[in-house]
Amino acid sequence: MIILKSPKEISIMRDAGKIVAECHALIAEKIKPGINTLMLDQMVEKLIRQRGAVPSFKGHHGFPATICVAVNDVICHGFPSSTKLRDGDVVTIDIGAHYKGYHADSAWSYAVGHVSPEITKLMEVTKECLFKGIEQARPGNRVGDIGHAIQQYAESFGYGVIREFCGHGIGQSLWEEPQIPHYGRKNRGLSLKTGMTIAIEPMITNGGWRSKLDQDGWTARTIDGSICVQYEHTIAITEAEPVILTTLD
Questions:
Q1: Binding residues for a divalent metal cation
Q2: What are the required cofactors (predicted)?
């Protein structure tokens, strides 16, 4: 069932989104070679709770941590660990906050120290994929328009678009209908309506799109060992422009 949100509900989600954005601002300051993601997890949980919210992911279907961590060939849902990040790594940190009954969710990829030009390009293209997807999130368009815009742009660079994991509706539940694939065909799928709140989160690789799960049952990584990066915002569909909820502005 699609749950449309009132302006008041969207305002609360905007507050939740600002908390998530504050966490990403903190991560951006702290990311460097030698730091471990368990430390980042603790910092983020502390900040979320200081803001009167709770971590969306911790305990969700048994997930053990506040942040999801994806280093290099990991696609999503990795655990924080005591392993130190190394110069040249790329790491995606996914953060959710539950505030006054509503969730906001945003993932961002970070270069650790100095990354290769190849990785820098992958990051730039993936970020642009996110905003091309957001641009299509308008009343009267369809879910397939979002996926098509992302897929067309990513594949024009020879990149792979992960298909086993997708974006989603979000609100009082962390994951709501509809699913938002990051590939697709124009004018196909569910019609988008004012009041929908969704998370768009393209996961793009410099190789193939197929994934596998580690033995922990959570950590997904590319089968071919290619690098994956991801950018995600929670947005609200309005009569005018799509509104990004997970920013500091």
A1: 94, 105, 168, 201, 232
A2: Co(2+); Zn(2+); Mn(2+); Fe(2+)
